[in-house]
Amino acid sequence: MARGYDFKSIEAKWQQIWEESGVFSVKEDPDKPKFYLLEMYPYPSGRIHMGHVRNYAIGDVMARFLRMRGYNVLHPMGWDAFGLPAENAAIEHGIHPARWTYENIAYMRAQLKRMGFSYDWDREITCSDPDYYRWGQWLFLKLHEKGLAYRKSSTVNWCDVCQTVLANEQVEGGLCWRDESPVVKKDLVGWFFRITAYAEELLSGLDGLSGWPEPVKVMQRNWIGKSVGAEVRFPLAGRQEALTIFTTRQDTIFGATFMILAPEHPLALSLSKGTSEEKEVIAFIDRMKREDKVRRAAADVEKEGVFTGAYAINPLTQERIPIWLGNFVLLEYGTGAIMAVPSNDQRDFEFATKYGLTIRLAVVPIDAEMDESTIGEAYEGEGVLVNSGPFTGMGSREAREAIADFLEQKGMGSRSVNYRLRDWGISRQRYWGNPIPIIYCKKCGTVPVPYEDLPVILPQDVEITMKGGSPLAKVASFVNVPCPRCGGPARRETDTMDTFVDSSWYFLRFASPHALDAPVERSQVNYWMPVDQYIGGVEHAVLHLLYARFFTKAVRDLGLVSVDEPFARLLTQGMVCKETYRCPEHGFRLPEEVDAEGRCRECGRPAEIGRTEKMSKSKKNIIDPDDLLAKYGADTARLFCLFAAPPEKDLEWSDQGMEGTFRFLIRIVRLVEDHKGFLRSPSGPIPFAKLVAGRALYRKAQQTIQRVTQDIENEFHFNTAISALMELANEIGRFDTVGQPDEEEDRRFAYTYALEILVILLSPFAPHLCEELWECLDRKTSIFSTAWPTYDAAIIQAEEILVVVQVDGKVRSRVYLPSSADEDAMRGAALADERVRGWLRDRSIGKVVVVPKRLVNIVTGEHR
RNA sequence: GCGAGAGUGGCGGAAUUGGCAGACGCGCUGGACUUAGGAUCCAGUCCCGCGAAAUCGGGAUGGGGGUUCAACUCCCCCCUCUCGCACCA
Q1: Nearest nt (C1') from A838 Cα
Q2: ipTM of predicted assembly, 2 dp
Q3: What is the pTM for the complete model shown?
């Protein structure tokens, strides 16, 4: 026990009481405003880390605060329990993924309980439970019926380490988001969700999300990548067909002097057939196929291409222009073909320069000279059209409309919109995930598993390896099933769903976690949704948060929910960071691997104190929440996370900061315990008007109510809320409890009041200790069934205000005035102030600026 | 390259409808109590200067310019850092 603060028994005691009383389980209640507060559920990796502690501490303050403010708060927790690490554990330690996962969950649930988070555990969801994943399968089948889930062959991102496909969103800079190994391309058949069907709504919906951080919305907008332009048909010379391209710059079409196709373009081979270029074209296509997609897509790779031998007709100039293949043209975007305008597109310019192709100006800047013979780079800005027939002289912006109209009138093309967003590939060639409920029959083709046969249970006895394809494919009893349609022999789909599918609707399930005949119970989900406040890491800005928005809209269109957007407000908390130690020979070192002189204990070389980085095992700078619980307890750990930085910023870990926070709690314990005999006033409350000795302290307590309430409510400024509490604690500590005998009642009353306010206001941050102190203060019911205190604006207003007096903008004096002082009184008092008069000697008074209740600025004229 | 965000004491951070820059905490310095202090309490702590002293003077919010009675806050230019996207036609 530490100096009178026995956090271990206090925390255990109250956690047990909360659990037994079930105070945090909720149900729908029409008499209270509802509030759905959600933090991103964790992957059960083994133990919680500081990022979880911070995330959930932020959420728990909100939950407890809002309950005391009279809201009906839904605050659930669950487990993102499917995923690859479970399979890795199976291979490394021979533990079954299910056992590994459920043991981790048991341990982590206990950790969360020891942190004292106020979850409604009755609603706990584990997405690897058949009760949960059957509804994921059900939703898959519904999406399939609507054409929103489909199967296709495509070139996919393949991670060799994970032995599975990755979605576009899961590739970061050409590397796997999970293990940072290079991603390679591979042709595979797999299942996709048609997220692109919602591209426009996902984009426009962002405008309504005023409670989301702007950076996240920007990232999503960029990811969706809407481009407005036109599709234009370029007739092929000597053929009936035409080549369709997409462009956003139809105003530059008169400068289109050649065309480029992606090497994989279906016309690529046939165009060169029979030409003298055929051999080279085949060789080029082969080479591109072998080359890694990621490397090819990097911007710094040199552009290269090959002439197909074929020509197209520029529909506006009627010019015969050559068709090339180019490594930088992507099959997946637009039509996989482009018109090349080297004068107005830098990529086309580089290509044209390399291969000696024609460059002709189409759009030139208004105020600068440009010449085909001297052009050094493409001009990509807005400007004026040249060489453009009837459109010459038109502004480029205007010309885009005019040329689009022209193309539509002549039947040469049409306005068109393209998105960078691709459909979401959800097939994973792994075991520990939700089985895709599809059966393949030779006779009937692709057959959905009938709803009444759900769930497709993930079999238990599976040999897990990281090679040779999906583990499920080797389980004969799973694979071989009769076709639901014809009864003939058929086989199951052996891919499982991306785990992001599970997390795309778990927030809906929390509203009715035990619904037996549907994924959600409609009245309950409509009562609770949307999530009023969602809290989690910014790393999911485009992954989970985009998928979840898509799912919500799709599920809405199935008639299951009535909201358009799942998360009304979003808080993305910063990372938890700590300084690192690095030895030139041994790399990152643990703090205990470095001695007091800062040398590596192994080789004696000075270890460099590295930069502050996100806590991670590999950087050896993690803090284990279990250690904090043992040394300081949950309240201190939570309070420090909230005090050290505002939630959206990175938090820099500081052991000394932890100590300071711990000391603060000990001081509060002493404030209560050292004055036990002094507390409580037998004669009842004293009206503020009659308070004398305790007047200032009472007012400070009232002011603190205002500050803490506002800081929590607006912008989540927990750090400043806590500093306000520290100020109040300091003032209580300074308060003279002795005084004159006739003032004793007055002092007792104010002291007790201030202390009670301190404990209540602190309770969302340090709930266990505050319950305990509340009990010490002789209160009989839980502090969390107490209403959040209110303040009186008239009391908060001090009788006297401090007015700053400036002369020519510099502070020269300060005067105290009654708070009722009007502008004239302020001006008069300022001008009468002796110090100010000294500064005004020899000068004439020009303007006098008066800011009510704050400041007087006297502007002087020239010297007299 | 494009997009977004951020630069304030020794450190984490306060203060932006423009109105006392540095709240609160850490660290540090001095003192008290102590056999002892890495416990606790009290005082001090942005920089420079005069001074016995402060309700003294000057300077200071990445750098430079501007608007204003008044700028950490608004406008323009520049520098640095972080994050996201990265040949998307």
Answers
A1: B56
A2: 0.94
A3: 0.93
